[in-house]
């Protein structure tokens, strides 16, 4: 039987396909832009027939239908591997939970049986002449998840861009149980957010000065990394490379400005490598069948040893806050969950191990709470319940609008002095008093 005949044999409706889901099952929705649409609606329609259906997802871009009903939590439980704003809303409904992890380990969870999948349902590209579907806009952990899923349903979306990639970025019709032709929605867009602030630009300008020609870039999500990307596109830098967890619009701008060639990359020379991509239509048009771009599983993109092989690796990420010991929190506000560890720790470590590499954690010096209170992001100790994303032993460059410090080699009193020096001036005296009380402030320190 040829691939077209197999396709027709396995083609069904979303309503028929989701009938294989049973109460108590683990269902996997994939990741980010690959989460299902038609299948999600069909599963939600079965709500009253089901209970204790547990769903895995992550970096969710829209509210799933299974989570919309007031009593959705009586039937479905959402389990997010990494939280977007939408995942936080689901958690806020009382039906969602976060799975702590280093993102690079996620494929192994499925290989080792730490994560179970009774039914997998994801969006894919149309099938090619060889019977393959690409899910490479979100390569991530999907290959390993599908390999160990008991049943696989693919939802074809004509608008999903085919991206060239490593093994683990496609699935063949022979390995699929059912095919559903979806509603062909536009690939979910993730905008660049608000225009850069003066603080964003100050921080970005300091970081860009530290980037050499031929560097290999990783940008995290958020305003400051995006602003760094914009300034790189406007700079005189040349022959840059890309090896990143998330591919964002900023990389497209840098590439179209002629700054990316990848000719100095020690690994995957000439290719822009990523684990998943999310942005505007500009990004999806750029990565479609583009030989300069390569999707790869996250246990490759975020592997510390792979990152370390890339000379002059530059990692740029955000933080919520950090303390005077150098502990970085990038995922919670106290016990309120915000995002996840993701790949930040892996890139922080990998960048430092890279020859000439640098890891930058950037943040504004203050934040304004909902009640209008202005608070310092540099604090004596992290708030009770806050998560340590990067331990103090791994912190490298820390940047606010008041300066940049390299914490490597510094003792506790040197760290407190350096970090207070880039805190907002309104909070420095208070931080000094706290440092003295914690015995990490010397009498000879600057005052």
Automatic annotation (TrEMBL):
A molecular-function term among this protein's GO annotations: acetate CoA-transferase activity
Binding site for CoA: 220-224, 320, 343
Pfam families, per the entry: AcetylCoA_hyd_C, AcetylCoA_hydro
Taxonomy, superkingdom: Bacteria
Enzyme Commission number(s) of this protein: 2.8.3.-
GO biological process: acetate metabolic process; acetyl-CoA metabolic process; butyrate biosynthetic process
Enzymatic reactions: butanoate + acetyl-CoA = butanoyl-CoA + acetate
Domain Acetyl-CoA hydrolase/transferase C-terminal as annotated: residue spans: 279-435
Domain Acetyl-CoA hydrolase/transferase N-terminal: 4-188
Involved pathway(s): Lipid metabolism; butanoate metabolism
Keywords, ordered alphabetically: Fatty acid metabolism, Lipid metabolism, Transferase
InterPro entries tied to this protein: AcetylCoA_hyd_C, AcetylCoA_hyd_C_sf, ActCoA_hydro, ActCoA_hydro_N, Butryl-CoA_acetate_CoA_Tfrase, NagB/RpiA_transferase-like
Active site: 245 (5-glutamyl coenzyme a thioester intermediate)
Family membership: Belongs to the acetyl-CoA hydrolase/transferase family. Butyryl-CoA CoA-transferase subfamily.
Function in brief: Coenzyme A-transferase that converts butyryl-CoA to butyrate.
NCBIfam families: butyr_acet_CoA
HAMAP family: But_acet_CoA_trans, But_CoA_trans
Protein name: Butyryl-CoA:acetate CoA-transferase
Source organism of the structure: Dysosmobacter segnis
